[in-house]
Structures are given as C-alpha cells and as structure tokens.
Design a protein that fits this description.
Oligomer: single chain
Shape: globular
Structural class: mainly alpha
Radius of gyration: 15 Å
Number of helices: 7
Strand content: under 5%
Number of strands: 0
C-alpha cells in the first residue's frame, strides 16, 4: 500500500517528490512502522496512527503544507476504502475473512488487487478531474 499511496498522492499533488535521503528514509519508516505494528484485526487507533504518519511523511516527501498533506492523504484514504470495499466483495465470495487475513498468498493477492483498483480509480479521467479540482480549490 505504500507504493499505491505514493503514486496516488503524487498524482493528486501533481509534482514529483523531492528525492532526498530524508524523503527516502521517511517512506521507509512509514513502511517499517506499518508492517511492524500491523494487527490481525484492524483497530481505529492503528488506522488513525497510519493516517497521521502518512500526512507527516507525504508532507516531507512532497514538500507540502500540512493542509495540502491532510487533503491529499484524506483523498487517498477514501480511494483506498472504496477499493478495499470492492475487492473485499469479490474475495469474500471465495474466502472467509480469516483466510484472507491469515493466508499470506491470499493476503498478498488481495492487497495487490486493492492497489491496482486504487490506481485504476485515480486514473479514471472523470474521477481524476474531480479530485484535482477539489484539491486545488
């Protein structure tokens, strides 16, 4: 999801990231933090911590104001939620929630599918134009 978030936020803000050692370290820390604290059962606290960390990391990486980072990350989270919902509907027809969360191959496939759906959503011209208009105003 870190690559997906990076791609979507980059597309929303419309500027390439400032590639520095600090920005690379920041994205690496986001991945390490998220992976090391990943719960089997999602909790609101975990989700909020990752959301806040995303805001801070993308503020640093893309040299955004805090407001721009909050808006871009919020848009990303909404797209992620919609993608997760769509993919879960499909995967739940074949697997139980426990299988999806405990079987590493199924978990990887579902996360890749969520990432692909996220990228497809943001690359849809109508949605991209709406998101850009919202972000820029």
């Amino acid at each position: 999801m870190y690559g997906t978030g990076y791609i979507i936020v980059n597309k929303i803000v419309g500027t390439g990231p400032k590639k520095t050692k600090m920005s690379c370290l920041a994205v690496f820390l986001l991945a390490v933090f998220s992976i090391s604290l990943y719960p089997i059962q999602y909790t609101p606290v975990y989700t909020m911590m990752v959301f806040l960390l995303n805001i801070i990391i993308y503020k640093i990486v893309f040299k955004l104001t805090i407001e721009q980072s909050i808006i871009a990350c919020s848009i990303f989270m909404i797209i992620l939620f919609i993608s997760d919902l769509l993919v879960t509907i499909v995967f739940r027809t074949f697997y139980t929630v426990e299988q999806i969360r405990t079987d590493h191959l199924i978990f990887l496939m579902s996360n890749l599918a969520i990432g692909i759906v996220c990228i497809c959503i943001i690359n849809t011209k109508i949605i991209y134009n709406l998101v850009k208009k919202f972000y820029e105003n």
